UniProtKB/TrEMBL annotation:
<keyword id="KW-0410">Iron transport</keyword>
<feature type="signal peptide">
    <location>
        <begin position="1"/>
        <end position="33"/>
    </location>
</feature>
<keyword id="KW-0812">Transmembrane</keyword>
<dbReference type="GO" id="GO:0009279">
    <property type="term" value="C:cell outer membrane"/>
</dbReference>
<keyword id="KW-0472">Membrane</keyword>
<dbReference type="GO" id="GO:0006826">
    <property type="term" value="P:iron ion transport"/>
</dbReference>
<protein>
    <submittedName>
        <fullName>Iron complex outermembrane receptor protein</fullName>
    </submittedName>
</protein>
<dbReference type="InterPro" id="IPR000531">
    <property type="entry name" value="Beta-barrel_TonB"/>
</dbReference>
<dbReference type="InterPro" id="IPR039426">
    <property type="entry name" value="TonB-dep_rcpt-like"/>
</dbReference>
<feature type="domain" description="TonB-dependent receptor-like beta-barrel">
    <location>
        <begin position="324"/>
        <end position="784"/>
    </location>
</feature>
<keyword id="KW-0813">Transport</keyword>
<keyword id="KW-0732">Signal</keyword>
<comment type="similarity">
    <text>Belongs to the TonB-dependent receptor family.</text>
</comment>
<keyword id="KW-0998">Cell outer membrane</keyword>
<dbReference type="Pfam" id="PF07715">
    <property type="entry name" value="Plug"/>
</dbReference>
<keyword id="KW-0408">Iron</keyword>
<keyword id="KW-0406">Ion transport</keyword>
Length: 830
């Protein structure tokens, strides 16, 4: 960690370097071909052009008036990018959070761009796509081995990409197979049982009329952290098996049909996370089981201020014994919507993901018209069993309320099962006209998505009185029409008007077991059969974008844009099954079933281009955004007068307004024939205007959040890479390279009160490799200096046998990074 002075100097140095370079953008050449791509323009030409599809058509990234960071196939290979977190490290102004509800795993990964950090686990402000087709899982995107490129579009992208592109869009573009046989195979081995095996093959089936590309990938690693309660187990084990198939059919001139399919399975162990408790927990004999680490008191509550404390010597730890209680619980179908055989068989995560799409483009002969059709389907289901108390111990009796629950474990523990399934179907029909100074795109789009989730567990009699409980299914159906018109007013000036009219219809259904509403506080009283409709609501929105683009010179372009975006609303259904008295208390406290959409208005200016005879390629942009009707969580607790028992409700409402502004730099510079440099940096300044969070106020006493920063986002971020390339003397067609990458992310706050945050994170990765003909070999060290700075932070409760500390947030759960990793990778291309 560095102090504020060092951090300021670090950011200042990065910005000074960038200002000298006049701006920057991502996408240096592949490590094994970098010697050629890094050579100055006077030797053999400029850095290669990068094409993106940010406006549903192929454009040079430097001619596209949208803020977009690109990782090409070459860039991905040379920097060792293998995960969404790696992409965030290489993208200024982007964070990934997978830490919420007491767990930090791959069951969900929220991409945070420009500080638009969702407050709810299952809400996203960034939509994900494969070849422009919506995808339900961000984690699935990196199961595509060796893509053509990854595009990170920043700012509202509603006009062309539709629903959920509130803060941006994340698009993975596949390589298109040619009519010649090509292939590759690679093997990577590293420390802690780290390995990856990948293979790809493409070629003709029927000449150039029908071609294919097939890939397979297997990845596995042991975790970096020993489980303090079970030293024979590591925390953070992960494995993924995936395969893809693409067919390209060109039956007639002008018509191209692409069919793509993806299958993947994640099978992870307990996640790498640590617990930091504000209270000390002891067992019956007085032995300390969890050490309290509070360093301040707020609103009468022991808590944490400043930088989050380091973990104690006994953390991280977790109870992960898959004993008869757990096996019985996981084998039962009671209340489940996933078959027990499809779910996890112990502590950890199992996820199955399936994606398929068809993309057809027909360039109508003798016209300037192109008709395009997209069809996509997704199916994702995951099952995760976690130790929700986040400490492993068998010495605390499970007698919190006087006696051990019949059929329960003798010691206190809190295993918890979380499951979710999502299925969706999408279609898009688009017509494009491109002739002379006029470009017009228009079309219609439809998305139908179903989601169901549930959970269960605890310290009771698992499988006897404590069962999994499935919530009712929710559905969102979106119909929209969109357009984009660009007119070249002069040789230098073009104007664009874009927009989307969207109708979102939301539906909430009763649990399969049925539901009886005894009060009309939220839904009409009466009996609702299993799966029957309980609630529905429609929203209509128009989301425009206007762009003015001016070509200053042949190599420099500037633009200004105005855009609006909408994030769909939702229903609160979790507390509808509470007693009538509890529901009335919730209604009296202002909790609502219906939550309105979030809205954003975005203003942006940018500068893109090439300098120094094409050796420098850069982008520079600044933005100001107004986030309104932000959806946040609310908490209500009390005593039910009918049952005389405590209740706790978590709800969601439109309780926030935030202003966001920032500057982003991105770029590549060929310093000499042998040396290439890439630099990037971002300042993300978030300013909360209004906010309401009962849980945070109860903990901290802070009720006026104005002027605070958004949690889970780095205010400062930077990345830099330096690569040296050369020829292997005495070897025909032999090259070598050496590369170092530095990544910086400033600390993130745990909540909107800005009381405690993670330390700043610094990571250095190095690679050294050589290529001889079709064979290449790399050696690498990731996290060279073994930095253990937390990757994420979340407010949580400390669970004890009598739940004495769950009325107020009383702990932190922190995500832990992968430790220093040595590895060797060998690849053969043919």
């Amino acid at each position: 960690m560095v102090n504020k002075t060092k951090r300021t100097a670090l950011i200042g140095a990065s910005l000074f370097s960038i200002s000298i370079a006049s701006g920057l953008t991502i996408a240096p050449p592949m490590a094994h071909a970098a010697a050629e791509a890094a050579t100055p323009a006077e030797d053999f030409g400029e850095l290669q052009e990068i094409v993106v599809t940010a406006r549903k058509r192929s454009e040079d990234v430097l001619k596209t008036p949208v803020a977009v960071s690109v990782l090409t196939s070459d860039t991905i290979e040379q920097r060792g990018v293998v995960s969404v977190n790696d992409i965030a490290d290489q993208t200024p102004g982007m964070n990934v959070t997978n830490n919420a509800a007491g767990r930090s795993d791959r069951s969900f990964q929220q991409m945070v761009i420009r500080g638009f950090a969702p407050a709810i686990v299952d809400i996203t402000t960034v939509a994900t796509f494969i070849d422009g087709v919506p995808v339900s899982s961000a984690s699935a995107l990196t199961t595509i081995s060796d893509p053509e490129r990854v595009e990170v579009l920043k700012g509202p992208q509603s006009a062309y990409f539709g629903r959920n592109t509130f803060a941006g869009a994340f698009n993975v573009v596949n390589k298109v197979p040619t009519d010649e046989f090509h292939g590759s195979a690679s093997v990577m081995v590293g420390t802690r049982d780290n390995y990856r095996m990948s293979a790809a093959l493409e070629g003709p089936i029927v000449g150039d009329k029908l071609t294919f590309r097939v890939t397979g990938d297997r990845f596995s690693k042991s975790g970096s952290y020993e489980n303090a309660s079970n030293t024979s187990q590591t925390l953070g084990d992960q494995s993924t098996t995936s395969g893809t198939l693409m067919l390209v059919f060109k039956p007639i001139e002008g018509l191209t049909i692409k069919a793509f399919g993806l299958l993947s399975k994640d099978d992870d162990g307990p996640s790498a996370q640590g617990l930091i408790s504000a209270y000390t927990v002891t067992n019956a004999s007085g032995k300390v089981v969890v050490q309290g680490q509070s360093n301040c008191t707020l609103n009468g509550n022991p808590t944490f201020c400043g930088t989050a404390p380091s973990l104690t010597s006994t953390t991280p730890s977790a109870s992960t014994l898959t004993d008869s209680y757990i096996k019985n619980f996981l084998s039962l179908p009671n209340g489940r919507f996933l078959s027990p055989s499809d779910g996890t068989q112990g502590y950890g995560l199992v996820r199955h993901f399936y994606h398929g799409h068809i993309a057809a483009d027909y360039e109508i002969p003798d016209t300037d018209l192109t008709v395009s059709y997209l069809l996509g389907v997704n199916s994702e289901k995951y099952s995760a069993l976690v130790d929700l108390d986040n400490y492993g111990d068998t010495s605390i009796p499970n007698n919190g309320f006087g006696s051990i629950p019949a059929g329960a474990r003798s010691y206190f523990d809190y295993p918890y099962l979380v499951e979710r399934k999502t299925d969706d179907f999408s279609q898009e029909l688009r017509l494009a006209y491109d002739s002379g100074p006029l470009r017009v795109t228009g079309g219609v789009n439809f998305i139908d998505a179903w989601t169901q989730a549930g959970n269960g567990g605890g310290n009771g009699a698992l499988g006897t009185t404590a069962f999994f409980t499935a919530n009712g299914e929710t559905r969102s159906r979106t119909s929209s029409a969109f357009y984009g018109i660009t007119y070249q007013v002069t040789d230098a000036l073009s104007l664009s008007a874009e927009g989307r009219y969207q109708i979102d219809k939301l539906f909430a259904y009763a649990p399969l077991s049925g539901y009886t509403a005894t009060t009309s506080a939220f839904v009409p009283a009466g009996y609702y059969p299993g799966g029957s409709l309980m609630l529905s609501k429609s929203y209509e929105n128009f989301m425009p974008r206007f762009i003015a683009q001016y070509q200053l010179t042949d190599d420099l372009m500037t633009y200004a844009s105005y855009a609006k975006g909408v994030n769909p609303g939702r229903f609160n259904t979790s507390f509808i099954s509470s007693s009538a008295a509890t529901q009335r208390a919730a209604a009296a406290a202002g909790l609502k079933v219906q939550v309105d959409p979030e809205e954003v208005t975005n203003y942006e200016i940018g500068l893109k281009g090439r300098l120094f005879d094409g050796r420098l390629r850069f982008t520079l942009d600044g933005y100001y955004a107004q986030w309104r009707n932000q959806i946040n969580s609310l908490n209500l607790s009390g005593i039910d007068p009918v049952t005389n028992s405590a209740f706790a409700i978590t709800s969601y409402d439109n309780t926030g307004d935030v202003d966001l502004k920032g500057i982003e730099f991105d770029g590549t510079y060929a310093l000499t024939k042998q040396i290439a440099l890439n630099l990037g940096a971002a300042l993300v300044d978030t300013d909360i205007q209004s906010y309401r969070s009962t849980a945070v106020t109860k903990l901290t006493g802070v009720s006026d959040f104005s002027g605070k920063e958004m949690p889970n986002t780095s205010k400062y971020s930077a990345n830099a890479g330096l690569q040296y390339n050369g020829d292997l003397k005495g070897w025909t067609d032999g090259t070598w390279f050496a590369r170092a990458d530095y990544i910086y992310k400033s600390g993130v706050w745990s909540n909107a009160a800005n009381v405690v945050k993670t330390p700043d994170r610094h990571t250095v990765n190095v690679r050294l490799g050589a290529t001889q003909g079709d064979i290449s070999a790399d050696v690498f060290i990731n996290n060279l200096f073994d930095n253990t700075t937390y990757t994420s932070i979340s407010d949580q409760f400390i669970f004890t046998k009598n739940f004495a500390y769950t009325s107020t947030l009383s702990a932190l759960v922190v995500g832990l990074p992968e430790r220093r990793t040595f590895g060797l990778q060998v690849r053969y291309k043919f």
